[in-house]
Amino acid sequence: MTATIETNGRPERSRGGTTELLRFATAGSVDDGKSTLIGRLLHDAKSILADQLAAVKETSERRGDGELNLALLTDGLRAEREQGITIDVAYRSFQTDRRRFIIADCPGHEQYTRNMVTGASTADLALVLVDARNGLVRQSRRHAAISALLRTPHLVVAVNKMDLVDFDQATFDRIVADFRSWSDGIAGFEDVSFIPVSALKGDNVVDLSERMPWYDGPALLDHLETVEIAGDRNFDDWRFPVQWVVRPRDDEHHDYRGYAGQVAGGVLVPGEEVVVLPSGRTSRIASIESFEGSLAEAFPPQSVTVRLEDDVDVSRGDLIARPSDAPTVARELEAVVCWMADAPLRPRARYAIKHAARAVRAVVDGIDWKLDVETLGRDPDAPELALNEIGHVKLRLSAPLAFDPYERNRDTGSFILIDEASNDTVGAGLIV
User: Fold this and answer.
1) Domains of the chain by start residue, with CATH
2) pTM of the full structure
């Protein structure tokens, strides 16, 4: 039996069931059981190699954990294993008959909120764990709020450790009601699912639990395998950031000129009229090429080379779009920024801004408000953004950028801020 597998965006044929890639990020407060849940998914989905399982068993016995510590499958750093916490974003992948998965296990400590932004920025789904004994806490709200700000298309609230509250339905219902009350009316919480689980025991993780007969929804893995993600990408607005200008130096291809990059929106077709931004020059697509040969069309997230009919000036960092739905081109923008540096962000500070494949300089014109993740309220009098704080910022640029609101296109609506002195990434921005 054959099925379609998507590799680098192109359909290919393979044995087995249909597979589709889902990226999801796990988050929550410290000790909510994120790493254990991921370990349980890997273990019960038969996605652990024998030598990995043997190493985890040996480490569990040496530490005196009493039983197989599945959290060790994702807590890869030595410091994490010694402290029993997750510090860095741990990436793991596994596959079932229905879907492939890339997991970003994000840290729970508040001081590592920036790592959660990194893990969730490319996710199709955010999985926020809540300890059934504690209910919603500050970090639960913080991570859910970040997922909403990042416009992560799907959110799952997994109420974990149900075994420690005797699988009580009233406890689960109370947490669901608390979350809905807190998030009511906030943009970004359009698709939220709630699943009661016990990562330690495996209840409702891969198989439905007989100890929670009152729950009539799917098990976690079943939800991950079936949640609809095909319509999450923008297939309407043409967006092709140029990452590289292809100019072979050999005599045979001396007149070849192509523009390589990853399709960020729309379905590109040869013959269509395009505009190159920020210059505004127009042409038509002559051909679309990949390593395997010419393509009849290209769509997100394919990486391709586009050739144009006219010899227009196109450089790395330019954006190819359709004239009828071109993005905004401007030297000023407003964005929600998550600050990632110890030194605070203040008005009049200068940074480099990296947007898609283009880099320009930016000056902070002002801070409009700072987000209170506990209440989702806004403080309009904030003088600065400290480490891990989130706020609405105005930026003035040294050269024009072609961009979209983040809500419209996650690829062309996001950027990072860089400290030019240290070359450190100090902020992540979502254009509004």
Assistant:
1) 2-226 (3.40.50.300), 240-325 (2.40.30.10), 328-431 (2.40.30.10)
2) 0.77
